[in-house]
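Standup notes
- DV: blocked on the single-chain target, sequence here:
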Amino acid sequence: MIKKLKFSLISLAVLALVGVIGVQSAYADALTFSNDTAVTLTGTSINLTILAGSTATSTVTGTNTLGVTVPVSSTLTLISPNGYTLANDGSIVPTCTGTTSVATVTGTGSLITFTPTTVVACTVSGGAGLSSGGGLASGGGGGSSYVPPVTTNTPPTLTITPPTQMVITQPISGCSSTSGYSTVSGVSCSGNVGYNTPSTSLTPSTTYYNLGTMTLKSGSKGDAVKELQRFLNDKLNLGLSLDGKLGPKTIAVIKKWQKANGLVADGLIGAKTKAKMNSMAQ
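- DV (later): unblocked, structure below
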C-alpha cells in the first residue's frame, strides 16, 4: 500500500528546489518545479525525473508507479534517462531521444498513472544524461537544452518526357510574377504566362507550406493549421491527423521546436516562425 504524506506549500517548494519527491505530494495550489526533480519508484531501481518548468497539483509514487495530476492549461514533462518504457493510462505516447524516454502530460486536472518497466524502449548507445540546468545533454552531462528530433525529407528526382513545347493558357493561381512560388499551391510560378519549354529531366519544386498571414495559436482552425500539421508530420514525424484544429499538445511541441531553432518559445506561429519553417523546407 502507498504511504501518503502531506506537506505544506512551503515544504513542497523546498523539495522541488533540491530535486527530490517523496511518496506523495498533494499541493494546495499548483506547484511549478524550479529544478529537475528526481523520483525513485517504491520497491524498484527505476529512477525518473520531472523536468524543471513542469507544473502539478499532486505527485504519488507507489510500487512501480508514479501518479501525477496536472492542472488545466499546464504541462509536466517526465523522462527516464535510462530509456525505460513510460507506459501510462492517459493515452500519452512517449518519444525517444538517444537513450532517454520522454513523456509530456498536458493538464486536464485528472490523475495520470505511469507504470514504467525495466524494458528499455530507447536504443542505448552512449552516455546521454541529464544536464544540471534542466535539459538533456550528450556525453553524460553538460548544459545543453533538450532539442526535439528534427528529420528532413529529400524529394526524389523524377525523370519525365514532356512535349517539346507547352502552352499555358491560364495563369497559375497565387502568382504575381513569373518567378517565386504560388501562395496558394506552393508550385513554381516560372512560366506563369506565355510559352514554357521544359527540360526532359525535372526535379520537383521545393516543398512549400502555406501557413497563411494570420498568427496561429492554440484553438486556431482552418487550412493554415492543416499546413502546419503537414509541416510537423514531414519534419518531426508526429503522425498528426490533418483536421485543421490546433490544440495544446501540438502547441507544447511547437514551443520546444521554437526554442531549439533560436526563436521565442511562446507557442505563437507568427511571421518569424513561419519563415523558419519554410526555410527548413527549402
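- Follow-up: The chain has four helices and 17 strands.
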